[in-house]
Amino acid sequence: MDQWNGSTAVVTGASSGIGAEFAAALAQRQCNLVLVARREDRLRELATRIEGEYGVQVRVVSADLSLRSEVDRLAQTLAASGTPIDVLVNNAGFATHGGFSDQDAARMNDEVAVNVAAVVALTRALLPGMVSRGRGAVVNIASTAAFQPIPFMAVYGATKAFVLSFTEALWGELEGTGVDALALCPGATDTEFFDVAGEAASVGKRQTPAQVVATAMRALDQRRQPPSVVSGCANRWSSRLPLLLPRRATIRVTRKLVGAK
Ligand SMILES: NC(=O)c1ccc[n+]([C@@H]2O[C@H](COP(=O)([O-])OP(=O)(O)OC[C@H]3O[C@@H](n4cnc5c(N)ncnc54)[C@H](OP(=O)(O)O)[C@@H]3O)[C@@H](O)[C@H]2O)c1
Q1: Is the entire prediction scored with pTM above 0.70?
Q2: Structural domains of the chain sorted by starting position, each given as residue range(s) with its CATH number in brackets
Q3: What is the torsional sign of CA 252, 93, 15, 185?
Q4: 237-254 residue pLDDT tens
Q5: Atom nearest to 186 CA in ligand 1
Q6: Nearest protein Cα to ligand 1, atom 7
Q7: Is the Cβ–Cβ distance between 159 and 120 less than 8 Å?
Q8: Is 18 exposed, middle or buried (0-12, 13-18, 19+ CB in 10 A)?
Q9: Are 9 and 85 a contacting pair, CB within 8 Å?
Q10: Per-residue pLDDT tens over the stretch 61-114
Q11: Residue 54 annotated in active site
Q12: Whose CA is nearest to atom 41 of ligand 1?
């Protein structure tokens, strides 16, 4: 029997892209779902499709994860439901692109709130239950942006470096508990991400969300699950380059690739 059969997973950012794909992949393995994002209509559409296709239970919670009050409300809603949460996929996130000083300050705060603060808060809310039951997984979506500083996407790169470091540290804490932590690092992926960040943020050939999620599911299925995984062969290679190049060269190359085009 699949390890996820009959479990319940929370997927944030499930209204599009990688999150919607995660929801479908987990449902295919008979995992019940709680789908979270701001666009409730999109979540409901996906819930109806997934329930029809896979016969699992799907609940929808609309929440703006840039607001601490909404993150807390989501955590309280999950606790009040009494259903143990076995899998948390912290996927909601977005990027700003452009010179740091030109960016809207409130928008950058939201970026840190969604990409970092909500990830920490939801993990803190749900992980203790998983550990006490001796099973579960936290999957945090980092990025290949985590492996080097990114001029013109300074905040986004830093948020993803945080997610990678945070998740790998949890992996170290959780060994032997029966609970997994995995940081998934996609490179450019064909989603609505670039509608938000702008096309200039896109570097390299894009993968599909299905390819990215398959990478994560394969990693979770491994008996010795790794702390993090990069999706795609080219992305795996490029994510190692910063280890080989002098820091200045890495930053200059990244600036050329990501700078205003
Ligand atoms: N696409 C890429 O090239 C790429 C590469 C590496 C990593 N990633 C990461 O992958 C994750 C998923 O992104 P994606 O590519 O699938 O992009 P996407 O299609 O734009 O999806 C982003 C999701 O995040 C949700 N979200 C954004 N702000 C939110 C907020 N304030 N509150 C609640 N939910 C919010 C969106 O839902 P609502 O708008 O409905 O709230 C949407 O469901 C992100 O963490 C992103 O950083 C993407």
Answers
A1: yes
A2: 8-258 (3.40.50.720)
A3: positive
A4: 999 999 999 999 999 999
A5: 6
A6: 143
A7: no
A8: buried
A9: yes
A10: 999 999 999 999 999 999 999 999 999 999 999 999 999 999 999 999 999 999
A11: no
A12: 38
